[in-house]
């Protein structure tokens, strides 16, 4: 599988990454089999978070990658603390919390370093300077190799770009959510920061899920885009998944398309696309988006 630069970090990642949130923590053998098979098929980027399944997801991932830990880029996230009663979580974005929280992640992941540590959210009112200090300290201590954001908020992204050495921003990006194309992708590229694209198949709407409204699009508008997509599929002889991922990966700001799977069959279907992924031409993109209006971020600007 093709490898791409993870922004300014010096790390390389597979152009398809595995979003591990979808793995079932109560089925450890299946999770381990999926992760092993993903690695065997060339996937080298694995993403989790301390929030997922109250830490059990990190445990499942950590156990599953032991045999090839140094051959992959392992990513996790920090910033959310589960309440003691398990009723939900609260936002925690302080230097002290981040420095403390990584110890739990390192233990659950069975590793002494995390390749990419990401702030799992963020608001413009956060103490940005001390958050950056925390990540820089962890980097100096060798506990992380690079850090980034997981955020779709333009004002937060711009704040970190102006003050920090982030390597990546994880954000939703797909044929139905192209809001970052207004300015964020160009801004990130100019700063040698990459996009880790999540939600690349729009919750399955771009593959086989029943049509429904999505963001500000009506069901009719979603159907229109799918008709465009099917015309391209017919022309190329590929499938919806391949064309949808190719669109995302054709953006030079994108390092990897992070896709979640929960079964080996889904993984097989995903990795079957790797030989067919291709850069879409400007003409192909125009055909895909013919008659489809552009959406913009309306909040946190």
Automatic annotation (TrEMBL):
Transmembrane segments: none annotated. Residues 15-274 form the NADP-dependent oxidoreductase domain. Signal peptide: none annotated. One of its GO terms (molecular function) is oxidoreductase activity. InterPro entries: AKR, AKR2_Oxidoreductase, NAD(P)_OxRdtase_dom_sf, NADP_OxRdtase_dom. SUPFAM superfamilies: NAD(P)-linked oxidoreductase (SSF51430). It comes from the Bacteria. This is Aldo/keto reductase.
């Amino acid at each position: 599988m093709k490898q791409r630069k993870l922004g300014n970090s010096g790390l390389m990642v597979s152009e398809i990454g595995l979003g591990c949130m979808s793995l079932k923590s109560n089925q450890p053998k299946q999770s381990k089999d999926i992760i092993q098979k993903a690695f065997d098929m060339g996937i080298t980027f694995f993403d989790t978070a301390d929030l997922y399944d109250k830490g059990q997801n990190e445990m499942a991932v950590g156990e599953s990658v032991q045999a090839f830990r140094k051959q992959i880029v392992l990513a996790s996230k920090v910033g959310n603390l589960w309440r003691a009663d398990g009723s939900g979580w609260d936002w925690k974005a302080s230097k002290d919390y981040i420095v403390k929280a990584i110890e739990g992640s390192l233990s659950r992941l069975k590793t002494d370093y995390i390749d990419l540590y990401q702030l799992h959210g963020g608001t413009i009112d956060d103490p940005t300077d001390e958050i950056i200090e925390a990540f820089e300290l962890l980097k100096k201590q060798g506990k992380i190799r690079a850090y980034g954001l997981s955020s779709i908020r333009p004002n937060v992204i711009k704040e970190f770009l102006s003050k920090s050495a982030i390597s990546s921003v994880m954000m939703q990006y797909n044929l139905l959510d192209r809001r970052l194309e207004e300015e964020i992708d160009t801004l990130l590229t100019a700063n040698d920061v990459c996009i880790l694209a999540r939600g690349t198949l729009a919750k399955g709407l771009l593959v086989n899920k029943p049509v429904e409204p999505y963001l500000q699009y009506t069901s009719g508008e979603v159907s229109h885009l799918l008709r465009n997509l099917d015309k391209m599929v017919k022309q190329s002889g590929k499938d919806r998944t391949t064309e949808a991922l190719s669109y995302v990966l054709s953006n030079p700001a994108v390092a990897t398309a992070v896709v979640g799977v929960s079964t080996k069959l889904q993984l097989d279907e995903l990795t079957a696309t790797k030989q067919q992924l291709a850069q879409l031409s400007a003409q192909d993109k125009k055909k895909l988006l013919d008659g489809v209006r552009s959406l913009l971020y309306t909040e946190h600007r």
